[in-house]
Design a protein that fits this description.
By secondary structure, the protein is an alpha/beta fold. Helices cover about 40% and strands about 20% of the residues. The chain has a five-stranded parallel β-sheet, sandwiched between helices. The longest helix is centred in the last third of the chain and has 14 residues.
């Protein structure tokens, strides 16, 4: 029997925008993933706790209110302390306040531990294709 990867989705911090994570969760389910939807206003600690409980393969966060960098400033250290260093970490949306060049923002979030960083309006198919390729590279799919 083929192993079905588990992914966690949610909107990080005090962000109440939930449509992006719902669209992403639906697309992931349609692509055959087991999806644990946390919804909106999810703390970094809750992502970590649920990832441990479910033995998740990836955490996919969204943020639209521009405060993600502040919300996640200690996330990678906490993730590593929790033994989740092998869990893929993706984020997408309006990650900083105002108009920005995604090429300038991506390195900042990669420095925070994210494997993939997506600008607003990225096609879900692109993210799912990247996820499948990254999971295959780690031998998890």
């Amino acid at each position: 029997m083929e192993r079905v990867p588990t992914v966690i989705t949610g909107t990080v911090g005090m962000d109440a925008h939930v449509i992006g994570t719902k669209v992403l969760s639906r697309a992931l389910k349609d692509a055959g993933f087991k999806v644990v939807e946390l919804g909106m206003q999810v703390s970094p600690e809750e992502f970590i706790s649920v990832a441990q409980e479910t033995r998740a393969d990836a955490i996919l966060m969204t943020s639209l209110y521009g405060m993600a960098e502040l919300d996640l400033k200690d996330f990678n250290e906490k993730r590593m302390e929790a033994g989740l260093g092998d869990v893929l970490l993706y984020i997408g949306g309006n990650l900083v306040i105002g108009r920005y060049d995604p090429k300038e923002v991506e390195p900042r979030f990669k420095k925070l531990g994210f494997d993939r960083v997506y600008p607003p309006e990225t096609d879900t198919e692109k993210g799912i294709e990247d996820l499948k390729n990254d999971l295959k590279a780690k031998g998890k799919m």
